[in-house]
């Protein structure tokens, strides 16, 4: 791809591919990526913005710009940018302040050649008779005084790590062969590059904003960049620009096509709440649980602030049991048997088994092995008649157009039995009993399951049943809920409404300090964190809410 200046660009079509579009991830929707590469196509159906600005890197970049281009000291820069733009959550502000300090401390030591910051993006632009192609990367840019060396830095909220080769290739290509250009305004216009095109040498690296870690990704000549891009970037760029598959999920909420796309299943009224003229949001049942614990915690999770490790040994065990059964049930209807389960090991110190990324050892390994042994008795595929459409831990995406919410759910298992849909959720516990009177009240994901089945949200087939499988080291239990029973459906809808209504009407996500702060994985960013309070007593209500998050 050669680059050239443009004064009067033909704008029959404009294809703009940012390095971020080449990020690895099964959950990324190819069709959505393709639409993003077409800045001239407007979003279908516009939704208002959230009151809080949820783009965490915006204040970070704004403060760094003031320091690097305006010569301000970081504290001053940060207090000035706090008055700019829309309101920012206090937790995001705290993170952004930390990130700016960490970035500025981490970076000056890199390399013997002094670099100066570059304000403009580097854009590799190719103008054809009917289309303009543009490659660029979003991050921070530096160059040597003579312009012969360009350095591009990706930013990551967490610690620095690898990026996909295609992502690195696009960033390197834009640095090696691009021309400086300001952000087009409006975005639907082509870039207007000006100044020096290309550099002889390019470095690409990533900076982790949580800890100042630095990951070098590429350091080579422009010639080598050309080869690297030809091998790892070019085909990916074409794929991105042509992507057609629909992969609905957490990305739908930011997608230009959500108002007309057939990917998310339309279920107006699913959450039982109205948005008014609110912004389009995305939520899962876990998100609603976090919200009920503390709105600020839910928000800071949603905007992906770095989190402390949050899994207790019990939670790790629950994940391991889930993981084991996820693999076991991939066999499309094959029933589990005792010889496919991990053994109970003596001596207990030798006990260990893993499922996916989860590993359990010692007593926890044996507790999990006992739970899994009891699963065999109630495996959904044991003596099951006419099973089809088995999906293990599928990601289901619904669009509640009344609540203006994309609802993402991950049932443990769904399948059809004699043409009727079954939705099964699994919980593990070492407690002898749960603290709830109605499973729909205790587990809102069951309420979601009932509401979805009752409305035919899983596709062709009748509403069969919703099941809660409870595994204990001392036995197994199945709770069955009939989604055709009117009272169950009404209760499910009421439960969903009670969980969703406060979340939907909230626009500020205030901190609610209390017992939940102790296990809060984002407490380091929370200005309201009161510190640990070991003397606080738990009552039954709080025990119930914690129990409901197990497994
Ligand atoms: S709405 Fe969802 S499924 Fe449809 S194109 Fe967008 S991200 Fe993909
Ligand atoms: S530390 Fe406490 S108040 Fe702050 S976000 Fe976490 S749970 Fe909420
Ligand atoms: Zn099974």
Task: Summarize the structure in words.
With 551 residues, this protein is an alpha/beta fold. It folds into two domains: 14-242, no CATH class; 283-547, Lambda Exonuclease, Chain A. Helices cover 31% and strands 21% of the residues. The protein has 15 helices and 20 strands. It has a five-stranded mixed β-sheet. A five-stranded mixed β-sheet has the order 14-17-18-19-20, sandwiched between helices. A four-stranded mixed β-sheet has the order 1-4-3-7, with helices on one face. The chain starts with 13 loop residues before the first strand and ends with a helix. The model is unreliable at 1-10 and 536-551 (pLDDT under 50). The site of one iron/sulfur cluster has 14 residues, from helix 1.
- What does the largest sheet look like? 5 strands, mixed
Q: How many strands appear in the DSSP assignment?
A: 20
Q: Calculate the terminal CA-CA distance, rounded to whole Å.
A: 51 Å
Give average pLDDT, whole number. 91
- What bound compounds does this protein have? iron/sulfur cluster, zinc ion
Structurally, how many domains make up the residues?
2
* Cα-based radius of gyration, to the nearest Å: 26 Å
What amount of the residues lies in strands?
15-25%
> What topology, given as strand order, has the largest sheet?
2-5-6-8-9
Task: Identify low-pLDDT runs.
Answer: 1-10, 536-551
Our count of helices gives 15
Helix content: 25-40%
The assigned CATH architecture of the largest domain is: Alpha-Beta Complex
CATH-assigned fold name of the largest domain? Lambda Exonuclease, Chain A
3D shape: globular
Indicate the structural class.
Answer: alpha/beta
Q: What is the CATH class of the largest domain?
A: Alpha Beta
